[in-house]
From TrEMBL:
SUPFAM superfamilies: HAD-like. The lineage of its organism: Bacteria, Bacillati, Bacillota, Bacilli, Bacillales. Keywords: Hydrolase. This is Nucleotidase. The keyword Chaperone does not apply. It comes from Bacillus zhangzhouensis. GO terms for biological process: deoxyribonucleotide catabolic process. Pfam families: NT5C.
Amino acid sequence: MLRLGIDIDGTVTAQDTFVPYLNESFQCAITLDDMTEYDLTKLLKISNEEFWGWMDQHEPLIYKQAKPAEGAKVILDQMKHHHKLIYITARRQHHTDVTYTWFQENHVHYDDIELVGGHHKLEAVQKHKIDVFFEDHHGNATMIAKEADIPVILFNSPYNQMPIDDRIIRVNNWQEASQWIKQYEQRLQTAY
């Protein structure tokens, strides 16, 4: 049984979740393809303070209404029988209730959820003894792969196209992620 560490936003939820809210608030017409950096302030031509003011106002509704990524629920339902599913998210602590409610309303299994309140997930990864991590943020994936020395499955997106090292596995969807996990388990069993 592997202990799987799983990011939520852009990994379990659809990567374009924020797009309609951004377009409405900032009177623009961006798409996921326009989001070539994780930091959206340049794309929106706003300051960091303006962005976080907007996030403070809109995050609860966005998190509440987020759609699961295509295939995520089916694959996670299969994985829950063989692995521990531990969600480690950059969401801030005051979003705990909306986060748990989303998992319950969408019938997505979890063994644990930790809101770390920022992009430094390494401590939580180590605390939970994570074997493989699922992420969409390039910086997080790189740090976790290097510092925790574990494989990181990186969900392909326009905003994470920087080079990756050999501990990072780029996938396009949850089916590819599941296939990689099955092959990884087989390699581990063969090694013992």
